[in-house]
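QA checklist item 7 of 12: single-chain prediction sanity check.
[x] sequence parsed
[x] length recorded as 309
[x] structure emitted
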Amino acid sequence: MTSAFVVRYADETCTLREGQRRRFGRSDAEDDITVWEQVRGNTLSVTAGELWCTDGQVWVRNLSSAHELVVDGPGVVSTVLPPRDPDRPGHACSVPWPRGSVHAPSTGSWRLLIAPDDRRSTSETPEPVPAEPAAAPPRRIPADLDPVARAVCAPVLAGRREGADAGEVAGVLGLPRRDVERDLARLADLLGLDDPTGVDGPELARVLLASPVLGTVRVPDVPAQHRDVAEAVCAPLLRGAPGPATYAEVAAVLGVSARTARRRVEALVEEYADTVRALPGGVRPQDTLTAAVARLLVHRGKLQGAVGG
């Protein structure tokens, strides 16, 4: 018998059969799954992702270069699919069996629910898929744990598949590893994980980003008036250098005075200052704000064409 799954979203359902693919997002194209809750907004990409069924399993891929997708299900650790690099196909994973869901906390309160289609009747009206149980109210992270939580999540938001481990967090924050491990255990306990002492940073990052405790931030495209200076500032990072261009290097590229270059760089940085500060680990202790903004633009692919949506 051909495998089939029901995808429930808002007040609608659709069937996904073996070999089929369906894209989802703000698009209202006939063959797409429209996230109606976000169709009037601009946080969710027009094409946010795609679902497909193969070998009796549903898979999901993040097609957005603007925001994450979170895939979860009862009794499993949530998987965060980071924003897509414009030059790559996007991260993908399977949807938990027997039922799971897909959402993006940073874009709003919507969710696709996915479960096997076990209907025995021939009715064309799909039977409802049981809704996810209401989530417990999110716990507030104490102020003293906030830096560790954000440092753990920073690599995922910068495009890496896994969060930072205890050693990386200790290096970034300048803390003893033992203190970081203690704080990670405290965070895991606050999030209700079964064995807080056995949770490492990468696993904790997935749970944190799947929860509304930290959330993620949509990074806007580079405005036209700042694009040339953004490209000049970020050029060394794009070539693999550890930091952005200096004011003198920017001035040489743009053919302006050092004073004008500095003023234009500062205007670019001001455009993204609030965004980069809002991101977990957005400004590292050793970074200037200019370096943090440049790294953000490079990691989010903002100098390689407009985002899809």
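[x] summary fact logged: The radius of gyration is 21 Å.
[ ] second reviewer sign-off
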